[in-house]
Structures are given as C-alpha cells and as structure tokens.
Design brief:
Elements (H helix, E strand, L loop, with lengths): L5 H24 L12 E9 L6 E11 L2 E10 L2 E12 L2 E13 L2 E8 L6 E6 L5 E4 L5 E3 L3 H10 L5 E6 L4 E16 L2 E11 L7 E7 L5 E9 L2 E8 L4
Parallel strand pairs: 9-10
Antiparallel strand pairs: 1-2, 1-15, 2-3, 3-4, 4-5, 5-6, 6-7, 7-8, 10-11, 11-12, 12-13, 13-14, 14-15
Length: about 250
C-alpha cells in the first residue's frame, strides 16, 4: 500500500495559498494603468493676476499623452522677468492621476529655485528634493497619490462622475498631505465675456488657516477648470481661463 504524507500535502496547499494571497495583494495595491485618459487632452490659456502686481501674466496649461500609459500635465507662466514651470508625469488609476514625477522650476531676476518629487512605479516611497534643502524620503500609498498640479485633474474627473466627497492624497517636496474639498454649489461666472455655469469647490483646511482656495469647474465643458483663487497672507491671486473653452 502506498504511503500517504498528509503533512507534506498540507505544506503544498499552504504554499499555494500563500502565493495566491501575495498575488492578490500585489494586484490590489498596484495601479490599474489606463492607456486612455478620462479627461480629453487639452491646451488652455489662463490669465494670472496677483495682488500688488500691476500687470497680468499668461499661463499655459496642457495635458498630453506620452505613450506606454503615461501622461503629462504642465503649467508654464512667463513674462520678461522670468518663468515658472510645473510638470507632472503620471498614470491614470480610475479618476486618480497617480504621480510618478512632479517638478517645479522658477527662474528670474538672477535666481533659480527648483524642487521635485519622484515616486517609482509600484513603489511606496517618495523621494523629494528642493533647492537649499537636504533630500528626503517618506512613505506614500503607491496607487492613490497625486501631486500639486495634477490634483485639479482628479477633481475634474470626480466631479464629472458625480462624486462630492473629494479627498486626495497629495505628495509635494515636503510631505504627503491628505486634502479634502467641498462642493459649495453653483455659480455663474463671466468667462471671456460669456456667462458660464460653474460648480464652485473649496478646499477644506483644518483650523483657522489664513490660506483659502476656491476652484470653479464648468459642467457644460466636461468640468474644465475655468477659475482658481488663492488667498494667502500676501494677498489674493486669481487664475482665470481666457480663450476658447474645449
């Protein structure tokens, strides 16, 4: 009679189950890369006006495909005094642009300031650098982290899908931050001389922060961002769409 080895069979089953669980965990935490963007690529122009500055600055905001499921969003503002450029490279996971790289570069008046954040594919650690500071690393949830400029795409996508609970994990050159946004209702804005119905969103900051942020998205135009207002201790800064809506 052939001998049976139930303990060995059990070990084999356990090894199989362990491998299966590891595979499921990997699938659960890895971003589901989408080759198509839930937001149509665009090239839009905005007018920037800051309190205390007597002239406006033009900013170009673009979204384009890079190939292999990667996308790039860039905001570039420039005038005779210098240039500010912010770049985000990411992959889509549902409505979240999962950041792989965020870069900031400000050049003007003989000065250069730079910062960047890198999050490798499948990685759970962000590496941050900025001018004059030591490099640093911090843990991030790899499948759900956006950055300071691609977060507007996440809000646009989620609003278009009817979501109103808008919480995002945002990585920057300092830390990982959980940001919550509230829908305050509808408001009609004059954009390029035309009345546009918008959804007004406010960032909900804890405590008595002197900083306030509002964003206006246009439902008739795929929830395109048409205006952003930032109030800081140094005044009020406004970015408003100019030119044709997509």
């Amino acid at each position: 009679m052939a001998k049976s080895y139930p303990h060995k069979a059990g070990n084999g089953r356990r090894r199989f189950l362990t491998s299966a669980l590891l595979a499921l965990l990997t699938l659960a935490t890895a971003p589901a890369i989408a080759t198509e963007s839930p937001i149509t690529p665009f090239q839009l122009q905005y007018r920037l006006k800051a309190q205390g500055i007597p002239f406006a600055v033009t900013a170009n905001r673009t979204l384009k495909a890079l190939g292999d499921g990667q996308w790039q969003m860039e905001v570039v503002a420039s005038n005779v005094l210098g240039e500010i450029r912010e770049t985000s490279r990411f992959v889509w996971n549902g409505c979240t642009p999962v950041s792989r790289f965020y870069g900031y570069r400000r050049k003007g008046l003989g000065q250069l300031k730079e910062a960047e954040v890198r999050i490798p594919a499948g990685g759970a650690t962000a590496t941050a650098k900025r001018s004059g500071k030591a490099d640093r690393q911090y843990p991030v949830p790899a499948a759900a982290v956006t950055d300071k400029i691609s977060l507007t795409l996440a809000l646009q996508c989620r609003l278009a899908r009817g979501e109103r609970n808008l919480t995002l994990h945002v990585a920057d050159e300092r830390e990982l931050e959980s940001q919550h946004y509230l829908v305050e209702g509808e408001e009609t804005l004059s954009i390029n001389g035309n009345p546009i119905t918008t959804v007004k969103v406010r960032r909900d900051r804890s405590g008595n922060s002197p900083r306030q942020t509002w964003l206006w998205f246009a439902p008739e135009y795929g929830y395109t961002l048409v205006q952003l207002v930032q109030e800081n201790e140094d005044g009020r800064h406004v970015m408003t769409l100019q030119g044709a809506l997509p």
